[in-house]
């Protein structure tokens, strides 16, 4: 099947738009990623890691909250997803080497 | 032979049974064994206070503005990320796991209190 140049250009633009649409994460997806990262932060056996992952997640989302360039948003979202995967794997790894004593910060003082 | 021995042994074995079980500081006479919840449901008052304490302790929130019917984003000037953080803190406090769909809907103290109060596993 043959397309005229105008037609094929139009198709190209359409495809690009579709790509943009699919790669741009929805607001709910971003919040869901945020929530998943915070959930994962709780799973760490080590106090310092629990707090660090939580802090790092919040800082990163705050840092990127005003992104407007679709490509940058998509890149940040993809990065967050890969970080979530890493955090999940690390939480499992850390559980094998869980600290035997509580961190001093975990001890409730009267 | 073996069964006779067993029954004669069993007749002599006694296990002390504790009659009352202390749950949450209250003496409960009738213990519903195998029932993990339902009897120790949280008071509305308690839920309200604990939810308000969480919201008040959030760094960006002015504690004097917090009331049981306050809206997180409209009244407290928080954004959607803060909203997620607060809901996560509530989850942690009441040892719940709130699904994303439900968590997205919770955007005010009223809804948070309502959700926690109606949740059978809240503790």
From TrEMBL, chain A:
The lineage of its organism: Eukaryota, Viridiplantae, Streptophyta, Embryophyta, Tracheophyta. Residues 1-20 are annotated as: Disordered. It holds the Pfam family Complex1_LYR. Residues 1-11 have a biased composition (Polar residues). InterPro entries: Complex1_LYR_dom (IPR008011), Complex1_LYR_LYRM4 (IPR045297). It comes from the Eukaryota. This is Complex 1 LYR protein domain-containing protein. It comes from Olea europaea subsp. europaea. One of its GO terms (biological process) is iron-sulfur cluster assembly. CDD domains: Complex1_LYR_LYRM4. Residues 29-86 form the Complex 1 LYR protein domain.
Automatic annotation (TrEMBL), chain B:
One of its GO terms (cellular component) is mitochondrion. GO terms for molecular function: acyl binding; acyl carrier activity. Pathway: Lipid metabolism; fatty acid biosynthesis. Residues 45-120 form the Carrier domain. Pfam families: PP-binding (PF00550). Carrier of the growing fatty acid chain in fatty acid biosynthesis. May be involved in the synthesis of short and medium chain fatty acids. Accessory and non-catalytic subunit of the mitochondrial membrane respiratory chain NADH dehydrogenase (Complex I), which functions in the transfer of electrons from NADH to the respiratory chain. Belongs to the acyl carrier protein (ACP) family. This is Acyl carrier protein. It comes from Olea europaea subsp. europaea.
């Amino acid at each position: 099947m043959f397309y005229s140049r105008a037609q094929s250009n139009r198709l190209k633009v359409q495809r690009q738009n579709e790509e943009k649409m699919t790669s741009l994460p929805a607001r709910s997806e971003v919040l869901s990623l945020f929530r998943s990262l915070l959930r994962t932060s709780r799973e760490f056996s080590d106090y310092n890691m629990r707090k660090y992952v939580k802090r790092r997640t919040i800082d990163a989302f705050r840092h990127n909250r005003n992104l407007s360039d679709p490509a940058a948003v998509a890149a940040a979202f993809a990065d967050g997803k890969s970080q979530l995967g890493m955090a999940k794997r690390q939480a499992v790894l850390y559980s094998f080497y869980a600290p035997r004593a509580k961190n001093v910060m975990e001890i409730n003082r009267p | 032979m073996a069964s006779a021995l067993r029954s004669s042994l069993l007749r002599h074995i006694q296990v002390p049974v504790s009659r009352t079980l202390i749950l949450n500081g209250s003496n409960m006479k009738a213990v519903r064994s195998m029932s993990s919840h339902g009897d120790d449901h949280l008071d509305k008052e308690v839920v309200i206070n604990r939810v308000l304490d969480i919201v008040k302790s959030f760094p960006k929130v002015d504690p004097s503005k917090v009331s049981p019917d306050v809206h997180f984003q409209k009244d407290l000037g928080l954004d959607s990320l803060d909203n997620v953080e607060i809901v996560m803190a509530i989850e942690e406090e009441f040892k719940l796991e709130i699904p994303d769909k439900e968590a997205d809907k919770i955007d005010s103290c009223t809804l948070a209190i309502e959700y926690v109060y109606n949740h059978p596993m809240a503790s």
